[in-house]
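Worked example 3 (structure in, sequence out).
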């Protein structure tokens, strides 16, 4: 099959222009995909850092507020009032309190600071007043809460961190409602941010304050993080707190409300337990692709007691990827179309004189010596046309001479 010069030029343009443009488009496509994934990892790390800061901020706020309450407790002898130690109570009427008034101070403080429990420990290390359950007192802090309270009382230093509450402690504090996660799911313990502040003056321990925020079903913490990062209307991200490998607080909705009582994938939990380091990467949850980071939560003895996760749907990151891909496809497509149009126009302009020369040559070969070959292109085609024109004139003159004989 013979190809015309015009088709050959279009084919040459395709191989010389279109194919390289398609290769460039493929490379850009790949780079955009890789860059989007890298950016998603960077962003999820940023989000998890924000989540970690919010978590630590909550812990530091509890610590700061309990320190302030400890100063008041020492200054106004709240322990003496609750113990009924009349001889140690100041006679200054402006600073004399009844047991009921002191109890009100602790109740208001607990409510104002969003604490789930608040205890006052006496100088012997026994519970003197429990805001949640005033009638239940006398238990030793060493046996009731040894990891935080016992260490703080013994060291005379503030101890704080995340801890799993003992079952007896939960019962004494009337925190059993935190064990029911709903939809028939429950746990046997509760994860809590806990702070113990010894009341010390001149190296003598007068008592201690023990307070905490239970994380089970704590929607405020996870929702605050999600709102801070994604905004109220953004639904593609979620924050979840796990106790061990069971979700106990989540901003993600489930069939029966919050997605509580859901197990952490065994592969991820095993990696966290073995390395003690955050786990980050893609995962699929209920058929939806996410980029996630899981951060281990450790207690005061550096044991992993929970996990904090940040999940963002990959579709959110892919919006940028799709946009960039569409822009690249549009630019490359327009470039290819432009190249083909220009090539077609140039090929037509280039082949038209050739077709005129061809047509003139055919007519001359049939004996038409009156056709004039006049091409003005300023190149070799014009020289060729001039040569054919001289040939035509020569042939016509020769034919005229033969006719005269």
């Amino acid at each position: 099959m013979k190809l015309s010069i015009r088709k050959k030029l279009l084919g040459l343009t395709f191989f010389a222009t279109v194919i390289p443009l398609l290769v460039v488009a493929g490379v850009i496509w790949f780079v955009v995909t890789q860059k989007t994934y890298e950016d998603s990892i960077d962003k999820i790390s940023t989000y998890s850092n924000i989540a970690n800061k919010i978590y630590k901020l909550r812990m530091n706020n509890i610590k700061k507020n309990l320190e302030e309450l400890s100063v008041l407790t020492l200054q106004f002898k709240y322990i003496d009032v609750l113990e009924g130690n009349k001889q140690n109570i100041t006679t200054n009427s402006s600073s004399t309190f009844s047991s009921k008034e002191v109890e009100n101070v602790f109740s208001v403080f607990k409510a104002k600071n969003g604490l789930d429990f608040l205890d006052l420990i006496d100088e012997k290390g026994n519970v003197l007043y429990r805001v949640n359950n005033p009638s239940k007192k006398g238990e030793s802090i060493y046996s009731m809460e040894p990891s935080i309270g016992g260490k703080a009382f013994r060291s005379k230093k503030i101890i704080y961190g995340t801890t799993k509450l003992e079952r007896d402690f939960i019962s004494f504090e009337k925190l059993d409602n935190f064990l029911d996660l709903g939809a028939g799911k429950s746990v046997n313990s509760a994860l809590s941010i806990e702070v113990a502040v010894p009341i010390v003056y001149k190296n003598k321990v007068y008592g201690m304050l023990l307070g905490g925020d239970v994380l089970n079903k704590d929607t405020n913490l996870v929702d605050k993080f999600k709102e801070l990062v994604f905004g109220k209307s953004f639904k593609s991200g979620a924050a979840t707190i796990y106790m061990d490998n069971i979700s106990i607080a989540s901003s993600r909705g489930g069939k029966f409300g919050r997605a509580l009582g859901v197990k952490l994938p065994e592969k991820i939990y095993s990696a966290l337990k073995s390395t003690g380091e955050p786990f980050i990467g893609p995962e699929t949850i209920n058929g939806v692709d996410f980029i996630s980071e899981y951060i281990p939560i450790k207690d005061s003895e550096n044991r992993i007691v929970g996990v904090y996760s940040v999940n963002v749907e990959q579709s959110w990151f892919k919006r940028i990827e799709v946009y960039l891909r569409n822009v690249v496809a549009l630019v490359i497509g327009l470039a290819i179309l432009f190249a083909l149009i220009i090539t077609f126009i140039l090929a037509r302009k280039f082949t038209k004189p050739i077709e005129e020369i061809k047509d003139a040559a055919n007519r001359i070969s049939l004996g038409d010596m009156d056709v004039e070959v006049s091409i003005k292109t300023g190149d070799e085609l014009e020289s060729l046309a001039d040569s054919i024109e001289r040939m035509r004139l020569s042939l016509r003159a020769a034919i005229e001479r033969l006719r005269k004989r």
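Notes: The CA atoms of residues 21 and 31 lie 15 Å apart. The first helix runs from residue 5 to 75.
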